[in-house]
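Kindly review this protein for my students:
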Amino acid sequence: MVRFTHSNDRGWFRSLFVHKVEPRTDTHSNLLSKKETSSLYKIQYHNVKPEYLEAYNSLSAEVQNRLHHDKDYPCEVVGSWNTWYGEQDQAVHLWRYKGGYPALTECLNKLRQNKEYLDFRKERSKMLISRRNQLLLEFSFWNEPAPRPGPNIYELRTYRLRPGTMIEWGNHWARAIKHRQENQEAVGGFFTQIGELYVVHHLWAYKDLQSREETRNFAWQKPGWDTAVYYTGNGTNLKIDILSHYTSLYLFRVQSR
């Protein structure tokens, strides 16, 4: 008869449930992001005082248009939205810096010397309750965000992952994204580099809420979509929390150069 000590018994029991994790040989940014581009993205969340929202939108659109079309600044506005459903009186801006961190640094240095922009920031500060931002990279298997005819509603789904599961998330969604392309609803997929870490953003576009419902229902008819949702959905070890925002784009939109 084989007898186990208390410590050996625990080790044997735990070995039934502990999975071997292969060591990573590179960073998330190198394993998951696009190699053919060096674009860096910044997402901004501005919580606006309700009485200033209209003035904020007008002022921000004016300054963004100037920066977007000024070739001396290596940045462009991918999109700007106001929250329709979700956190109210909020503006969300997505910027792209072609050239990565050097482009971001160049842009910031120039803006520090731009009196007009500094005046804008001072005026804008009177309208805000709070603000935060994140630096992002785009997943290699997603579309690069591009202008599209509108008006549309945009859904930003934000996922906070358990540390160590980003690669697994990417592997599942590299297969799952093919089920969400037929209606061209996939706008972009990103993961954080600076700011809150282990955060993923998926951005979708729909003509309206009815179109959103029909498109999402259609995905469930495709073999493999249910598996993707199961492995990246609530109740699994992969995902901690989901926040969803439905944002109206037609308040102001800056087209690409």
Remarks:
- The beta strands are 39-48, 76-85, 90-98, 128-138, 153-161, 186-194, 199-206, 239-248.
- The first strand starts at residue 39 and ends at 48.
